[in-house]
Design brief:
The protein is of the alpha+beta class. It folds into two domains: 1-30; 31-149, Jelly Rolls (Sandwich), CATH 2.60.120. It has one helix and nine strands. The longest helix has 28 residues, at 2-29.
Length: 153
Amino acid sequence: MKNDTWKDALRISVGAVAIVFLATTLLWAAGSVVTDVKTVDEMKIIKISWVADNALSDVPYTKIDNVNGFIYDVITDPGTPAPTDNYDVYIRDYTTDVSLLGTTLENRDTANSEIVSPSGTHIYAQSVGFSLSGSAVSDAAGDVYLFVVPNAR
């Protein structure tokens, strides 16, 4: 009788592990975006960490709230596994869907971090839409940093 109880407990444990594994796989299957905000002096640094879809290898359009300032610089930093060379990052005004940096974030490098500084007038945004495409690597990852100041200098 004790032997059957041990077997039942093992079956339940294996089943629970399988459910957790399946749920985690499904959770990451659609690609994901997580943001973290830090403020240094008056500069707001918004870190956008992304993981590509494991089937389509893209990152879905995601709203980033509380930008509320002028974008001075954008850094792209490929992670591990790196996306396909020349992947594209898009930062758009969330309300109007207008590209804030044109095509300057397209064709990103997979071996190096790269920086883009808007030329001319700095761009004001309250909320932005972030997406990534052009990668053929399942579960590719990386970070994008937005450097934002509340008032143009």
